[in-house]
């Protein structure tokens, strides 16, 4: 399967309205219900395939997030990062299984790291692209922010407790304070 933009006959900078209009034209031309009266079974199957391609293209290009991911993958298709299949955004015959790069679906679209020692990077080197993708994931960043807030709070409390101790017990160590408390207790017992 080819490029989604080519499938709908669009430029890469097409607006959402243009995407919708192009899909409607393709749907009216290739919808399986319009081809039901055609006696040729291969023509019907071909029209159904073209309709699924158009529906898949519309599904990706009409959503901003999916379109941005798709455009990124198109730009990166010439990079050295290997893919699981040559047509990474091609979906299977069912329009419900899209390969959006998370390793699910039926073969399309998952980004795969090269195994260690299998060429590409030398042994012991850092895969910076993979590392950058891993640390810029939303979940990682949320966890990092939460951990930094907890660590900052703990450091603040530790410093605050130390300052309160110094303010109330100027010039005394903890041991000196404990000795003075014991003296006070023993004098109170002796006075009874």
Task: Provide the fold topology.
Layout: H1 4-8, H2 16-30, H3 41-61, H4 64-75, H5 128-135, H6 138-168, H7 174-191
Describe this structure in words.
This protein has 192 residues and is mainly α. Helices cover 57% and strands 0% of the residues. It has helices spanning 4-8, 16-30, 41-61, 64-75, 128-135, 138-168, 174-191. Helix 2 (16-30) runs antiparallel to helix 3 (41-61). The longest helix has 31 residues, at 138-168. It is rod-shaped. The N and C termini lie far apart (97 Å). Mean pLDDT is 76; it is low at 80-111.
* Backbone CA Rg: 33 Å
Share in helix: 55-70%
Structural class: mainly alpha
Report how far the terminal alpha carbons are from each other: 97 Å
How would you summarize this macromolecular structure in one to three sentences?
By secondary structure, the protein is an all-alpha fold. The chain has helices at residues 4-8, 16-30, 41-61, 64-75, 128-135, 138-168, 174-191.
Output the keywords:
single chain; 192 residues; mainly alpha; 7 helices; 57% helix
């Amino acid at each position: 399967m080819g490029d989604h933009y080519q499938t709908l006959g669009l430029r890469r900078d097409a607006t959402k309205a243009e995407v919708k209009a192009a899909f409607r034209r393709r749907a009216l031309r290739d919808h399986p219900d319009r081809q039901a009266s055609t006696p040729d079974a291969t023509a019907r199957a071909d029209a159904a395939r073209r309709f699924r391609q158009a529906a898949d293209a519309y599904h990706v290009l009409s959503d901003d997030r999916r379109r941005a991911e798709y455009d990124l993958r198109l730009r990166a298709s010439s990079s050295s990062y290997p893919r699981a299949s040559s047509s990474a955004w091609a979906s299977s015959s069912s329009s419900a299984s899209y390969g959006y790069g998370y390793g699910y679906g039926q073969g399309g679209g998952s980004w795969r790291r090269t195994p260690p020692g299998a060429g590409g990077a030398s042994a012991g080197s850092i895969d910076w692209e993979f590392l950058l993708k891993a640390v810029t994931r939303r979940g990682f960043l949320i966890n990092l922010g939460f951990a930094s807030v907890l660590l900052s709070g703990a450091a603040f409390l530790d410093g605050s407790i130390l300052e309160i101790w110094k303010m109330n017990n100027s010039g005394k160590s903890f041991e000196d304070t404990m000795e003075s408390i014991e003296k006070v207790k023993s004098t109170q017992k002796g006075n009874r």
